[in-house]
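note to self — DONT lose this again. spent like an hour looking for the file last time. sequence + predicted structure for the chain T wanted, 199 res
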Amino acid sequence: MSYECLCGEIIDQDFPVEYEFDRDDAVFRSIVEGEVLRLECPHCGAVHRLEEESLFRSRDRSLVLKLLPEHFRDQVRAGNYPPDPEITRLVVGYPELVEKVLLWRDGFDDRIIEYLKYGFYIRNTAKLTLTYAGVENGKLEFWVREPDTDKVGRTRVPLEAYREASGHLEEILSRPRLRAYLQAPRVFVGDGPWFDPSS
C-alpha cells in the first residue's frame, strides 16, 4: 500500500492483516512497544501510527482482537459493526489494543477493569480517559489522560476492589446502564454517556 507523509513523500509499505502472539513473545512486545503498524518516513523521519483494520490472535485463541481505525469510533459506538463469531473483543484505536493484550497477559477480566473505570468516570466531572498500565505493589495502575492535551497522570486502585467486583460480576452485568458497555465483543465503557449531564 502507498501512504503519503505530511512532507509529501510517498511511502510504499505493506503490513500484515493478521498477527499471532503469545505472552511476552516478540510480537507481543512489538504490540506493547508500539512497533506494530508503525511507519517511519525515510525522507523526513516522521513516525506515523497506521490504524489499519487488523486481526490479533493469541496463540491459544483465548483472545481474538479485531482492531478498527479511530475513524470507526462513532459507528462502533452506535453498535454498527458486523458480527463475527471468531472475534472475542473489538477495539477501536491502538491504545485500546495495547490495553487489551496487557490485561490478557496479566490475567484480568476486562469487564471488571471497565467497571472499575466506570466508577472513576462517574465521580469525575472532567472528561478524562483511563488506560490500564499494569500492577505495582498490590495495586492496579492506570494512565489518566486529558483528551486533546498532553496532560498525563496515574491513578491506582487496590487489587481488593477488583476481587470484590469479580464476586458481583453477574449483578454488574445485569445493570441496564452498564450492560451494553460490558458485553462482548465491545467491552469498553469509554464510549458511554458518563460525561453528559442529561444522561
